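#lab-general

N.A. 3:47 PM
ok so I finally got the sequence cleaned up, no stray characters, all 241 residues accounted for. can someone with queue access submit it? mine expired

B.Y. 3:52 PM
send it over

N.A. 3:53 PM
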Amino acid sequence: MLSGCGKNLDFVDINDTTIQDTTTELQTTTSLVETTLDTTTSTSNVVTSATQNPNEIVLSESSSATTTEATTTTNILSNYGNDEHLISLATSLYNIACEMAWNYYNGSPYSLDYNTYIEDDYGGVYFLINDDRIKSLDDVHNDWYEIFSFEENPKDFNGHFIEKNDGVYVNDGTRGADVYYKDTELTEITSILGDGEEVTFKAVSHYVSPDDNSPMEDKVNDFSIVVEDGSYHVKKFTLPY
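B.Y. 4:20 PM
back already:
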């Protein structure tokens, strides 16, 4: 187990409820969207369901997918009103993105069949994903896009996944985490594009010496979220460890 993004990270199974269980604050902050919409536009066609993906904004079954409703969904970010609330929502997504990126690029988000493996030309060992849903890299991408933007194509995750006729293999455990990493804070909103189609934050990552816990130089990156298909997704992101 490693400490990352201000949380303890462990194995994340995309089939399990782990992601939803780790986003209690995301459910709470998402509910604030409705409160904001109450004072800015009618909420008759927009509801937030706690039983769905907690970062998803769901149009009610009785509503039709009109241009007006699509615009309302897109404008939720700009209607959020309070920067503190928006940063809280983005922080929850940032923490999930850290967990997912670590597993997809360094570990495995799926259970594996350690008795079935292949080797690459450099001696790297890849184990078969033991999940009936995962038959191709497209299936892996579908899980990835639950949180990350469709605009960012991870392809084979820097060679971490290999697709074969009998399924998809993953190299479980590519590298260790940065032992100097402490946590990351989203300190401010740096830009809002259009009516809130994309919001960018300043992500400040803190590092300390493992010897005496003394502060080291911070690293600053952009972190952005976008609204796609009625859900919040992560676009610009840099794994801090």
